[in-house]
């Protein structure tokens, strides 16, 4: 059931189109794609005192926790079953609002997760948050909704600055082995994006995190981008 608050422009979208200009969402509400009606995620949202509004015309968007944030959710079955999520995310990437992808990283899907991470974060420059279950996803979505009342402290609403400290980006970067929050923040401060970090030389990385961590970072991105763990020489 679509709501009259679902679209700012009132335009109708097909199931393959993203809402390029977002939706009009009231504070404390979340717009949910009809396919999640009655799901465990929705139950968690309701238990968190979030008002759930179901919409059958959301296109590729799965959740709108606020007017300027859209979320796509990739389940364990999507990743394990070979679901063609790339086409969906390419459409999602065209949207003008802040874009977040939640993806289930479980014992079954973990072997596929690095390919997902490479495509979403490195190739498309989107924000990826791994979750262990629909329950955790629901809690994250509820947090996004509740932070709507405090826009200045909401990392999902603040536009990316030249020196980003977006917690979602930090979370993604900290999947690099041996890289903690402090060093991840230092890298983002210097290189501005995960894409630039992945392209930086070992020598450049070493000026921020030291030689050992620099080599780990370089090896990590080489493995994910090129499918091998060949070590690069300092200064490459």
From TrEMBL:
Signal peptide region:
none
Molecular function as annotated in GO: chromatin binding
Gene Ontology cellular-component terms for this entry are:
Fanconi anaemia nuclear complex
Q: What is the lineage of its organism?
A: Eukaryota, Metazoa, Cnidaria, Anthozoa, Hexacorallia
Q: Note the PANTHER family from the entry.
A: FANCONI ANEMIA CORE COMPLEX-ASSOCIATED PROTEIN 24
Q: Native species of this protein?
A: Desmophyllum pertusum
What residue stretches are annotated with the Fanconi anemia core complex-associated protein 24 pseudonuclease domain?
A: 27-145
Write down what this protein is called: Fanconi anemia core complex-associated protein 24 pseudonuclease domain-containing protein
- What domain of life does the UniProt record list for this protein's source? Eukaryota
Q: Name one GO biological process term.
A: interstrand cross-link repair
């Amino acid at each position: 059931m679509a709501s009259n608050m679902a679209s700012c422009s009132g335009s109708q979208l097909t199931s393959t189109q993203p809402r390029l200009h977002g939706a009009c969402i009231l504070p404390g509400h979340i717009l949910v794609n009809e396919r999640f009606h009655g799901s465990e995620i929705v139950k968690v949202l309701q238990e968190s005192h979030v008002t759930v509004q179901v919409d059958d015309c959301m296109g590729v968007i799965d959740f709108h926790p606020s007017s300027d944030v859209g979320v796509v959710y990739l389940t364990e079955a999507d990743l394990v079953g070979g679901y063609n999520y790339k086409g969906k995310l390419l459409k999602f990437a065209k949207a003008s609002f802040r874009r977040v992808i939640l993806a289930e990283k479980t014992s079954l899907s973990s072997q596929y997760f690095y390919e997902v991470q490479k495509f979403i974060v490195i190739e498309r420059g989107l924000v990826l948050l791994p979750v262990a279950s629909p329950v955790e996803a629901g809690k994250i979505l509820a947090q996004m909704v509740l932070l709507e009342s405090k826009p200045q402290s909401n990392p999902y609403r603040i536009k990316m600055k030249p020196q980003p400290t977006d917690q979602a980006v930090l979370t993604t970067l900290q999947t690099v082995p041996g890289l903690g929050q402090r060093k991840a923040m230092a890298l983002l401060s210097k290189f501005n994006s995960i894409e630039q970090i992945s392209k930086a030389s070992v020598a450049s990385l070493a000026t921020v995190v030291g030689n050992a961590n620099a080599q780990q970072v370089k090896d990590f991105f080489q493995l994910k981008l090129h499918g091998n763990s060949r070590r690069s020489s300092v200064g490459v």
